[in-house]
Amino acid sequence: MSAGHPGQLMAAEMAEQPAVLRRILTEGAGPIREVAEHIAARGPRFVLLTGRGTSDNAALYAKYLLEILLGKPCGLTSMSTTTAYAAKPDLTDCLVIAVSQSGGSPDLVSSTVSAREAGAVTLAVTNNPESPLAGAAEFHIDVLAGPERALPATKTYTAELLALYLLVESLRGGDGVAAAAALPELAERIIDRQEEVRRLAGRYRFAERMVLTSRGYGYPTAREAALKLMETSYIPALAYSGADLLHGPLAMVDNVSPVIAIVTEGRGGQALQAVLDRLRDRGADLVVVGPQGQVDAASAGFALPTAGVPEELQPILEILPLQRLAYEVTLARGQDPDAPRALAKVTETR
């Protein structure tokens, strides 16, 4: 249970995110670059990514980075193929990246051990360098988020995103620090706009269902925001790629159920435009998180200060108002975001 007033832990950890981002850029970039150099020397041809929950959404973000920036074929693993079915894949020349806040889930540890035995280069990305997962992998990256006490993961998610971005940039010969340097200050500006998000949350106090959509780098944000809404407020929140939304699920959109669109400034946002037009044609209650122009054309929204921020870094900013939205909606519904029912900090799937 939470200490003090409802949501105290989650609120404190959301507020820590600018400091965590600074810490990664100043203290974490060097170790990440060293790990990347060791991995690059092994010459992996393709990449498999593993995670659960919030960390699975971070892994999906890394999949976009690796495929777009590095041109490496990537996949998200099904851990049960090795943990439940005892499959023996040949992972020669493969990099396997396991992403986990705690590094304690048995299936992540077991699948990483199996991957290493199958010939893969294995990397754990965790918030706990002493965890079983960190010990099971050949290489480890500490996301330096500090202890996370709230059950809903917030600061560890953005820390994972930035660490994975720096890893990919280092794998292609750079370091990414200069491109990401503005993130901590921009994150502070977004987090300071709490009252704006609180007003927005009033639209969703009585929502029975929500739909979130995006494309490209923004799609992991849609999935993570949906997860946060479900695990804190218990509102069924469905996340779709904009392309997938048009292939059937659009039929359930009406003028009652809210739709949140995450519009990344760049190619992903351009690809989403046709979806936004269709949603408006259907009279959807459309809320946009993205550039000011897109917010002005929607029913409501939250404008992001992303001008000049590379498209691949915008997800680190996009999720911040959506974390706060989940928090505020949960409080408005009389629930405690620090104490979601049926959740544990380490989920021991096998």
UniProtKB/TrEMBL annotation:
Domain SIS intervals: 35-177, 200-340
Keywords: Repeat
Pfam families: SIS (PF01380)
Gene Ontology molecular function: any one: carbohydrate derivative binding
Alphabetical list of InterPro entries matching this protein: GlmS/AgaS_SIS, GlmS/FrlB_SIS, SIS_dom, SIS_dom_sf
One of the protein's GO biological processes: carbohydrate derivative metabolic process
Coiled-coil positions: none
Keyword Cytoplasm appears in the UniProt entry: no
Organism annotation: Streptomyces hoynatensis
The protein, known as: SIS domain-containing protein
UniProt keyword annotation of Repeat present: yes
